[in-house]
Predict the structure.
Amino acid sequence: MFNMMKLAVFTGAAILAGQVCAQAAFSPPPESSIPAGPKGIAIQEGRKLLTETHQRLPNNVGNGLNCTSCHLAGGTTPNASPWVGIWGIFPEYRSRSGKLISLQERVNDCFERSMNGKPLPIASTEMNNILAYMQWLSTDVPTGMSVKGRGFGPLDQKLVADAGKGKDVYASKCASCHGAEGAGIKNPAGGYFFPPVWGMDSFNDGAGMARTYTAAAFVKHNMPLGQGGTLTDQEALDVAEYFTHQPRPIYPGKAGDWPKGGKPKDARS
Ligand code: HEC
Ligand code: HEC
């Protein structure tokens, strides 16, 4: 009897967990579904701001990156922190902020950290255009559900990084595009052909990408570009430890992160 009750409780929890973990299919809408009129124009403008951020928003970007330097292919690549489905996820609780934050605040977090820049005014045309694009990308995703492929994909969290070995991985697998000194390769017309992974034109040390395990998951599934999944978890972790800890802009605001505790082991101090 006791065992049966335990079984019943367990099954209930599993179903509950199943609901909590339910994931929507990864299905960005077809280009042809962008409507005509003001909404369609906003969607197109939003996409341009996210793919050509450095050129189009010089007052808000303090480095050489575009949003899509990390959120690959306009935010439509699974395991490269896609924007598909995030419209119906926010507001969401974030332990780094210690509170519920809106999608606008999440966008501005990346402006201040990943782009080493300044936040956009919440009610600006630019912010609304960015949201219009993210809403369109989320067309077929039920409200409140994450898509399969949200975030950066799995990486063995028990592994321990070796920056010395990471330096060798960097030289053999990354330097051809990102440069021996991490400075990337500039486009003479402005911005970069290959973005910098360290130095003053890169993301700051308060960015998610400055965390070893976060960067490792991105690298594991997406780098070298076009050959995601070819590094082992250990190689991805080693190279991430190496390049994230090279010189880069400092973000003073990170001192206030995780105000309610739970600071992850790879958070920068
Ligand atoms: C240097 C890489 C990088 C760049 C550039 C970047 N981001 Fe991010 N972004 C990240 C990382 C890393 C995360 C996840 C951080 C975490 O949760 O630890 C993220 C998360 C997000 C999320 C939340 C996604 C989710 O599933 O919750 C949004 C929205 C976002 N970024 C928008 C932007 C916008 C808009 C820009 C340009 C202004 C931008 N990002 C530029 C690295 C980057
Ligand atoms: C074939 C060229 C190529 C190789 C090799 C390559 N990358 Fe990249 N990487 C890119 C490009 C291009 C982007 C930006 C994508 C975009 O803008 O669409 C990028 C983006 C990145 C980013 C996010 C943006 C930034 O500048 O911080 C990181 C981090 C990164 N690569 C790390 C690595 C690491 C580590 C390796 C080696 C394991 C590597 N890459 C190998 C081409 C390459």
Notes: The CA atoms of residues 13 and 19 lie 10 Å apart. The chain has a mean pLDDT of 93. Strands lie at 23-24, 92-94, 99-101, 146-147, 185-186, 192-194.
